[in-house]
Amino acid sequence: MVSRVADSVLRPFDTIVAYADAPVWIVTARSEERRAGCLVGFAAQVSIEPRRFLVGLSTANHTFTIAEGARHLAVHLLDADGFALAQLFGAETGVELDKFEHCDWHTGPHGLPILGGAAGWFTGEVVQRVEFGDHIGFVLAPTAAHAPAAPVRSLRYDKVADLDPGQPAD
Ligand SMILES: Cc1cc2nc3c(=O)[nH]c(=O)nc-3n(C[C@H](O)[C@H](O)[C@H](O)COP(=O)(O)O)c2cc1C
Predict the structure, then answer these.
(1) Distances in whole angstroms, Cα of residue 119 to Cα of each of 71, 82, 92
(2) Contact criterion met (CB below 8 Å) for 26 and 91
(3) Contact at 8 Å (CB) between 67 and 60?
(4) Distance (Å, rounded) from C-alpha 54 to C-alpha 32?
(5) pLDDT tens across 63-93, in order?
(6) Would residue 30 be called left, alpha or beta, if left means φ above 0 and alpha means ψ between -120 and 50 degrees?
(7) Residue 113 exposed, middle or buried by CB count within 10 Å (0-12, 13-18, 19+)
(8) In angstroms, rounded to a whole number, what is the distance separating the alpha carbons of residues 101 and 78?
(9) Which secondary structure element, helix H or strand E, spans residue 157, and what is its range?
(10) How far from the centroid of its chain's Cα atoms is residue 129's Cα?
(11) Which of 77, 82, 114, 152 has the fewest CB within 10 Å, making it most exposed?
């Protein structure tokens, strides 16, 4: 059993993670004709050889219900001008709104929705699912990728920290 962490640790922990100002991504999923996607801060490459990328999805999110049984997910890089897309996917929930009616997208590898407003994207096969707590980790092995033609400045946590998530985390 994991012991409860004291507030005197949680507060500075949260501050350190916030100050790290990590990039935010949009993860999309498809199950038959249903599409979903949400803004994700819990995401990072976790192995070089083989390439592996970890995405943490909240079990409270509509996107999780679609991703739960999916074999593949798409991960989108946003540039510093990507706030509106981040707002659509981070402050709205697919339970109430079809986000794909409000943005440019096309069908990509594995039938996944690919966002036209993203600076770059890759698709990945889900090779492992790990229960972390209120988020489930999806470990992805890249299957296709489209990089920006030139380096971009990514949209980072500090620019979206004030958004109210469309679904409160568990
Ligand atoms: C800054 C920020 C970071 C977020 N990071 C994550 C995350 O890492 N994983 C996740 O599942 N949800 C994350 N969310 C929450 C979802 O993006 C949000 O609840 C979204 O509206 C869920 O949409 P859905 O119900 O259509 O899946 C984040 C939201 C914000 C504003």
Answers:
(1) 24, 8, 21
(2) no
(3) no
(4) 23
(5) 999 999 999 999 999 999 999 999 999 999 9
(6) beta
(7) buried
(8) 19
(9) helix 157-160
(10) 15
(11) 152
Question: How is residue 24 written in tokens?
Answer: 């935010």
| Cα 76 to ligand 1 centroid, rounded to whole Å | 14
Residue 116 alpha carbon to ligand 1 centre in Å: 20
Mark the ranges of the chain whose per-residue pLDDT is less than 70: 1, 170
The two three-digit tokens of residue 19, written as one number: 């100050």
User: How close is the Cα of 78 to the center of ligand 1, in Å?
Assistant: 15
| Ligand 1 atom at shortest distance from the alpha carbon of 39 | 17
| Ligand 1 atom showing the smallest separation from residue 36 Cα | 26
d(CA 35, CA 53): 21
Pocket lined around ligand 1, Cβ cut-off 6 Å: 24, 36, 38-42, 56-58, 61-63, 90-95, 135, 157, 160-161, 163, 165-167
